Amino acid sequence: MSIDETLALDIRGLRVSFAGVGEVLRGVDLTVAPGECVAVVGESGSGKSVLVRSVLGLASEGGSTALVSADRFTVGRTDTRRLSARGWRALRGAGVGLVLQDALASLDPLRTIGAEVGETLALRKVPRAQRRERVLRALEAAGLDSPELRFVQRPGQLSGGMRQRALIASALVAAPPLLVLDEPTTALDATVAARVLDTLAALRDAGTALLLISHDLAAVAQIADRVVVLDDGAVVEHGPIARVLMAPEHPTTRRLVDAVPHGPKPGPAPALGPVMLSARGVSRTFPTPGGGHVRAVDNVDLDLRRGEVLGLVGESGSGKTTLARLLLAADLPDAGDITLDGEPWSGATHRGRLGRRHQVQLVPQDPLASFDPRFTAGRILREALARGRSTSSPAELLDAVRLPHSVLGRRPRSLSGGQRQRLAIARALALEPDVLVCDEPVSALDVTVQAEILDLLVGLQRSRALSMVFVSHDLAVVRRVCDTVLVMREGRVVERGPVEEVFAEPQHPFTRELLAARRSAGPALRRA
Amino acid sequence: MTATTTRPARLRALGVTGAFALVFILLMVVAAVWPTLFAPGDPDAIDPRAAFTAPGLAHWFGTDESGRDVFTRVVHGTRQSLGIGAAATAIGVGLALVIGLLAGLGPRRLDAALSRVIEVLFALPSLVLALLLVAVMGKGVTPTLIAVGLATAPGYARILRSQVRSVAGSAYVEAARLEGQPALLVFGRHVAPNTLWPLVAIATLGVGQAIVWVSALSFLGLGALPPSPEWGAMVNGGRVYLVRAWWLTLAPGLAITLTAAALTVLGRRLGRVAAA
């Protein structure tokens, strides 16, 4: 094994351990060549984040001091094993750039995009005039339109996708030969994510080495050349992307690949009952800061039958969450009418709704925020049971969502993301609802956990003949779970119909665009 | 079961400094309730022959111009100083509860009106406000503590208002509403506990501050009057003899400082425990 001077990143036998935790990375080998994209995939807890931080020399930033050792650890031509803190600072930005997942939290809201992106250059004493030039070029390379305008804008004025690209620009601006991307598309809509991935692919083709950390195999399949599967701090499988995805050898890889939602909803078509929830001409308008108004939901009709799962898809800002809140009567429409079980729902009095609230329950996107921080899981379930007509016990509810009884005495904060979502589902079931409104219930979860929660939801929906409204930006998830689908754009329903029909023959151009963004996910994931 | 698992964790979250502060405050409370336990003597017993005795074994903190034992007086003054501080804070927090809850949960116009009132009160320095109120109501202990209470109320009210609003707008309160819990139940189970616990920590900080203010007013001769062993009044009384008998000022001054410091440390730690 000769030292390969041409590699952008060369790591052999990387070990990272934390006091009190033990070894988190147990001898990881990883190389990235210029113009190559290597993906690191794994479930949460596999050591992905520690690997990212280590590559940037930030392993100890997580709070506790890390013990890092490696047989070889070079970034470009720099041997980082004996690098001082000062040396690392010089390397970061110029030698290796980082793109984080959360674009909103990673950009200073008070500074312009120009100042934020140019900071790396300012720190390296690049003259102001030259800096502006390079920032504009980086913004363009990151795929942002009208860079001159973006230069003077602040993060709050940009959409999520633009912010993510601004972050990519700030990682690019000093032209580092290696770019580390930590879940760069997880928080983005399908169409936006597709565009960001295109940008990254262009960078890779221009010679930048990319190290992509993700749990989204669909995203990985689009741009990665090689993939490294991490499990419990060790590499369990690595190879060319097509080979690993088509013929996974290790059980962990197989689990990850199988968990990617694909194909139609399994099982027989549901026996539909009478209409449970019905909306006619429903609109909801919000005032905007400028004094104007925005129609979040615009003249929507929908019928949800007993036993039906209705998907609401669209990009962020399309009004799907507002519509879900109207169906929950968490918010009331300005125009139109919603009926529940044939009786007035949005038109009922406050008191009239109170007694029927148990019929429509929410499974939220962020379950942790929906639990009182002082309550244990047991108390959360007991409170919910006191509201409903259910005669089951908290333990029986936990059985229904396949959580161990030991969870009862614990607070939600100490549970994992998947367990929290199971608890939220158990709480909703405690009220014996007729309709379950799920607002992006799996978008914050790892792909394997996501698959488990989706299975659980579909199983419960079938066994209890529940009706379900399923809000999601992920078309593959919607196809897996829903019977019918509404495609929303700018508050309006642009397409509706049985899921398989809409997927096979999309009528509206927007639906086609959404589906195209997903289809480019790579041939490996299109089988089935 | 949960109580037994969380309580030691909470105590540990206090830390060593917090535990020291807690023990100190508990000692102060004991001194306030049962002063003769620490100082069996009479705080007002004069002994002209022993006037201006320096601190020593017989008189730990020395004696004053009338030969009264300063240690005994400081211990017996605890009840008044601590009591006034606590009472003033209670008035402030009580008033803030009304204003803060009304502003936080009431209709928008009421919130706007109350918030403006809070802002106007904020524009005046609290001690100046207290001075003004004492000037209107006259000297004495009761006006002092009412004045300090009123002067601290806007601060608590503002904290409470924003806390109430954030809790009332939280996802877990909405979740409870969507379960069909009546508004009063939601308030009692979720809004009140999650609002009031952080306030306990802040109020603990506030008692220390109130003690300093009440002492300041007494020092200015507006609060407790000289024979009474209130700490501020004692500092004031010792001022004349500062060069000749420094201990007359130092002992009560130290008592004020240490109590305020201990309450501040405890308040900050409690804030962390409440957040945990």
From TrEMBL, chain A:
One of the record's GO molecular function terms: ATP binding
Gene3D superfamilies (UniProt xref): P-loop containing nucleotide triphosphate hydrolases
Pfam families named among the record's database cross-references: ABC_tran, oligo_HPY
InterPro entries recorded: AAA+_ATPase, ABC_transp_ATP-bind, ABC_transporter-like_ATP-bd, ABC_transporter-like_CS, Oligopep_ABC_C, P-loop_NTPase
GO biological process: peptide transport; transmembrane transport
Domain of life: Bacteria
Keyword Transmembrane belongs to the record: no
Ranges where the ABC transporter domain occurs: 9-257, 277-515
Keywords per UniProt: ATP-binding, Nucleotide-binding, Transport
Protein family membership: Belongs to the ABC transporter superfamily.
PANTHER family, sorted: D,D-DIPEPTIDE TRANSPORT ATP-BINDING PROTEIN DDPF-RELATED, TRANSPORT ATP-BINDING PROTEIN
Name this polypeptide is given: Peptide/nickel transport system ATP-binding protein
Organism, scientific name: Sanguibacter gelidistatuariae
UniProtKB/TrEMBL annotation, chain B:
Membrane topology, from the record: Multi-pass membrane protein
GO biological process, one term: transmembrane transport
Primary localization class, coarse: membrane
UniProt-annotated location(s): Cell membrane
Pfam families according to UniProt: BPD_transp_1
Gene3D superfamilies, per database record: MetI-like
Residues of the ABC transmembrane type-1 domain: 78-267
UniProt keywords, alphabetically: Cell membrane, Membrane, Transmembrane, Transmembrane helix, Transport
Similarity comment: family membership: Belongs to the binding-protein-dependent transport system permease family.
Descriptive protein name: Peptide/nickel transport system permease protein
Lineage: Bacteria, Bacillati, Actinomycetota, Actinomycetes, Micrococcales
